[in-house]
Amino acid sequence: MINRKCILSVCLCLVMLMLAGCVQARKLTEEKQDIIAEYSAGIVLQHADNYKKRLEKQENPETPESSQPPQVTAAPENPSEPAQAAGSEEEPALAQVSLNDLYQVSGMNAEYMSYKSCSKYTNQIAAHKGEWLYIVDFRVSNSTKKPLKVDLSKRGIKYLLNVDGSEYQAHPSFLENGGMNFLKTTIPPGASKKAVVVFRVPEKAKNPGSATVTVRDEGKCETEIRLK
């Protein structure tokens, strides 16, 4: 409750001021009169219990604490990787094997013999203008005591000639036995036959610095032969 004595004192002061103001009304400006009235009202309110309680609440507000922890966005465990360009993966290397392991013809023994470069091999096999021929000789033998039938015509075995870094595929030989790349023949017991692979290359490749032939059973294995 408001202290009555204080209120009476304030009221007495106000009355005195008002009386004095009547005398000096002309001397006090409106601004000074407002200051006096505001000061008087403040004195009265300071003695009001309800005003004190309300003032304390406003001066000491309680800041509510957040009960929930701040959310943190976790980084992805598996960040996306840039996609690889199609066809960028290298093909697995083929196993290097011997000629006989590549052909896998029981009783047949195959070996490289020699090669020669020429413009003409037979009347049927001759180089065209601007071309040159590489003739690679093989020998196939029958190690059994019975006639041996050999048919490589449907095996799809490839022969690739590499001359100083340039690669060329074999051509049909048009020989009686089909040539080594299309060999189809019968070998008598203990006998051997000659079979060749014919390559047609540009004439500028007739004097190679290095030359090799790769015999490849596609997707399985291959063997490399250095020509000499």
Question: Explain this structure to me?
Answer:
By secondary structure, the protein is α+β, with helices and mostly antiparallel strands. It has helices spanning 4-24, 30-46, 49-59, 99-103, and strands at 95-96, 108-118, 131-142, 148-151, 158-163, 166-171, 184-187, 192-202, 211-217, 221-226. Helix content is 24%, strand content 30%. An eight-stranded mixed β-sheet has the order 1-10-9-5-6-8-3-2. It has a two-stranded antiparallel ribbon with strand order 4-7.
Oligomer: single chain
N-to-C span: 125 Å
- Gyration radius (Cα, Å) is 56 Å
Beta-strand content estimate: 25-35%
Name the helicity range.
Answer: 10-25%
Number of distinct helices: 4
Total strands: 10
Runs in which pLDDT lies below 50 for 5 or more consecutive residues are 22-26, 79-85
Average per-residue pLDDT, rounded, comes to: 78
Structure classification:
alpha+beta
Major sheet characteristics: 8 strands, mixed
* SSE run: HHHEHEEEEEEEEE
Main sheet: strand order: 1-10-9-5-6-8-3-2
Shape: rod-shaped
